[in-house]
Design a protein that fits this description.
Nitrilase/N-carbamoyl-D-aminoacid amidohydrolase, 2 domains, homodimer, 17 helices, Rossmann fold, alpha/beta, seven-stranded mixed beta sheet, 537 residues
Chain lengths: 537, 537
């Protein structure tokens, strides 16, 4: 028996059940009529979107989602549909996959492995299922699994033992750099051991801090990837199976690591703006590398007519910064304003003169400059309904080298999970597509330009020392002694770690941004602000 | 056999293992020498503090905590000690209670019920234990349980079945309004059913958004509370047991609801300032009820010499606002500044004139005023190392009636979980202790004073309508239809709910504050920003 299975790599909106149902119906009709598919498989929790977080605690929301499944069953004919939904039974909730065909539920599977680490909180919402699920369709016995199930050993085996000849896996597997290789390697290894072909459908799209990269795939019983959908694109593809074995051989090639990181950032901006209904984006353009990269990302995500740049020079801004910022805006074809901040800085200096009498200048005066820029940018954002993008990178977020309500002001922080060295690599990568970032911006020493002749290295270890220390401490949870043993100087490690420890309060108030590493700040790294822990003494 | 058990209701710092160990030793020696205790019982996860959040994912931290237990065993003699710690075995972590006596581990219990709802993420870190634990001490058979264990049915029974005559329960049970009654009722009911006396030791203190209220207690086998320690105070008390039965009868009386709420807020400010090493606190004083209450709370927490108020009038500030703000500062004996914001507002107006040419006035101009105040307050905070307290209440946080980086700027938001109507009740309550808030501040209609003759009711339903709707929607997860059915007007419900839905992005960037309701914003209510969910259409 041959069977045509459509992989629906969709980008749905969390929480919008009615729209998601409409999109499921459209996609199913398309797969049936245009692709001749017998079955169409959607991503995990299709109906609610993933992750719906505490919406899943609302009874009204859950009832609507469960009703939607019945509605779907009535609306689709001539094709079987596999969709994910939060299944309610009594006062329990399951993360389930249901097979609908000709108006009836053919099968329903409850996810057994519920991830509760990293960005995942599934045990907050769901009860784990306790059994395999296999259904017969046109003579083929098909097993169902959901995401984490196929990362754990045992569940694929048990499903095969229960009679499955072919596995369908629905997923919401978030991107991070290198994740696609890890994902395919683990699934292929499991499939090879169990000798059962597997269809892996992943969602795509940005959802707050998470990016889902798609790259759905099919593995044959020998553990070889024989089909792969594109990364970072919505796509409905069809794969033919004969007696449970895939006969298609259509492999989208994988992007390079730097290219996939760039595309993840672009998709993150695009979906945050689109899904939240902003009219476009604005950002402060300083002439530095961070804002240059964010501008390029924003234009690639939204188009030049939706993006606006603001230059806000002060007495400490070098001429080359202004020149380069103008060059960037012109190269990308965006509208820009120039609004010097001196009048506001002077006003605040005067207003605070009495209270500050007799005190020495310190970072307070630097922060005032950054906050004047924040006020200007937020005013432009408020007036126009455009999203303010902040331009801080992960290295700065880690050590608190940023001003709360100043350069940290904004609705979305595209590169908050991009370490400084990667900022340079991404800038260089973007310039290989078309030259938009002046070379001088990439080569000059980075500076916040909040004091005369200031450069970042006055306050921080050089980034080629700082970034690897931060990766070890923040992403890998290594101890100070382990990092020192790996060859870093004790004083650099001590400085970096103590800054990370002390700046949790700033990160707690930072806007969301795109997660591209294996551990971002935010839901992924939940540290107390009030803490006596010191990573190094 | 008689047995003297000390209840160590302690306030330890999360993450500071070395200091916590020192404090355990001091408390144990005190209980042995001054109270004649045979056993001293500390709260849950004593050694690390609770909740240590993702510090628990650091191997170095866990090793240090496990080593600390051995160290403790060596340092304490002549008294048995029950402490909580994150017990590591292989690559698993347990939330454990260990009994140390004369240098050896007498018993070790692993928590069986791991809460993973509300503010709790214990399944992120811990593996559940699977058995009861009973040890013999001076002829008495004592069972161990930990917090959530005694909220679930079955575990107390099983521990009694395993031979326990007396139960020790170590806890980190956070405060919310009315929680103490719920806590005692549930424990007493379970104890009465199982007919076994129970010692309940709770920690006290503020930890970021959580307040632990202490109020440790002892229940006899008939389910009667026969001893209760004070609420909101560190305290080491001793209770005598004869053949497992408590003979002491010393009951601290319970505070009224309003008094306990007030004390929770005071403790929250006090511990955030103290544990994070701030030199004091500052706040903007508007002449409105919210800042008046926060000022009183701050002074009660820190003393008048550690608190500073800033009046920042604009052209829209009424004279009575300035007069009342000065009266408040004087009544509480705090230093105050008066810094009119016109110079900065005028500067920004001029700087934005070109960009805003041809546009109509809207909330942008109101936000600029609020943000000028934010810049002033942050400058004073930065210069002096004093914590900036924001003064927004829960009603405002719910509907987004606040300016990001404006009145929302600050390190701690004491009343962010206090609905507006409760703000009034707390202000009246505080005035019964001593008159510090002018009557006019309580009786005049609330206003943000960001435009001429503005009052809150121009933009929002009256608070006696709004607050109950918000409680139902935010805290109880009721649907719009349920709320309407309870007697509220559809347009009020629709307005309130849609504002809550749309303002998650603001809340995500708000500072932490004291949780006093059964559901606060923050870790307690995890909503997506990007969401198509609309609670009402």
């Amino acid at each position: 028996m041959t069977l045509k299975i459509a992989l629906a790599q969709t980008n749905f909106l969390v929480g919008n059940i009615a729209a998601n149902v409409d999109n499921i119906i459209k996609a199913a009709n398309y797969a049936r009529d245009e692709l001749g598919a017998d079955i169409i498989v959607f991503p995990e929790l299709t109906i609610t979107g993933y992750p719906a977080e505490d919406l899943l605690l609302r009874i009204d929301f859950i009832i609507e989602a469960n009703n939607a499944v019945y509605q779907l069953a009535d609306c689709i004919a001539g094709i079987a549909v596999v969709v994910g939904f939060p299944e309610r039974e009594g006062n329990k909730l399951y993360n389930s996959a249901v097979v609908l065909h000709q108006g009836v539920k053919l099968a329903c599977y409850r996810k057994q492995a519920l991830p509760n680490y990293g960005v995942f909180d599934e045990q907050r919402y769901f009860t784990a299922g306790d059994r395999s699920c296999v259904f017969e369709f046109n003579g083929t016995f098909i097993g169902l699994t959901i995401c984490e199930d196929v990362w754990k050993s045992g569940i694929i085996d048990a499903t095969k033992q229960a009679g499955a000849e072919l596995l369908l896996t629905i997923n919401a597997s978030p991107f991070n750099s290198g994740k696609i290789h890890q994902r395919e390697a683990i699934v292929c290894q499991q499939v090879k051991a169990a000798q059962i072909p597997l269809v892996y459908v992943n969602q795509i799209g940005g959802q707050d801090e998470l990016i889902f990269d798609g790259a759905s795939f099919v593995v044959d019983a020998q553990g070889r990837v024989v089909f792969r959908a594109e990364e970072f694109k919505e796509q409905i593809s069809v794969v033919e199976f004969d007696g449970g074995n895939p006969v298609a051989h259509d492999l989208a090639s994988l992007y390079s690591e730097i290219s996939s990181e760039y595309q993840a950032l672009v998709l993150g901006i695009k979906d945050y703006v689109r899904k939240n209904g902003f009219k476009g984006a604005i950002l402060g353009l300083s002439g530095g590398i961070d804002s240059a990269l964010v501008l390029a990302l924003a234009v690639d995500a939204l188009g030049p007519d939706k993006v606006e740049a603001v230059l806000m020079p002060s007495r400490y801004t070098q001429d080359m910064s202004n020149e380069d910022a103008v060059l960037e805006a012109k190269a990308l074809g965006v509208k820009y304003h120039i609004i010097p901040i001196e009048p506001a800085v002077n006003a605040f200096t005067g207003m605070l003169a009495e209270a500050f009498a007799g005190t020495a200048k310190d970072t307070t005066e630097e922060n005032i400059q950054a906050r004047c820029r924040g006020v200007i940018l937020m005013a432009l954002s408020n007036k126009q309904g455009k999203l303010l993008l902040t331009t801080g990178n992960k290295s700065e977020m880690s050590v608190g080298y940023a001003t709360l309500y100043g350069d940290m002001a904004g609705g979305f922080a595209p590169i908050k999970d991009v370490p400084k060295l990667l900022v340079y690599q991404l800038a260089n990568y973007r310039n290989t597509l078309s030259a938009v970032i002046p070379e001088r911006v990439i080569t000059r020493p980075p500076s916040a330009e909040l004091a005369r002749d200031q450069i970042d290295e006055d306050s921080l270890p050089p980034y080629d020392v700082l970034d690897p220390i931060l990766e070890r401490y923040v992403e890998l949870d290594q101890s100070a002694e382990e990092i020192i043993a790996a060859g870093f100087r004790r004083e650099d490690v001590a400085r970096a770690i103590s800054l990370v420890d002390r700046n949790e309060y700033k990160r707690r108030q930072s806007p969301p941004g795109v997660r591209i590493t294996s551990r971002a700040f935010g839901r992924d790294r939940r540290y107390p602000i009030t803490s006596g822990y010191r990573g190094i003494s």
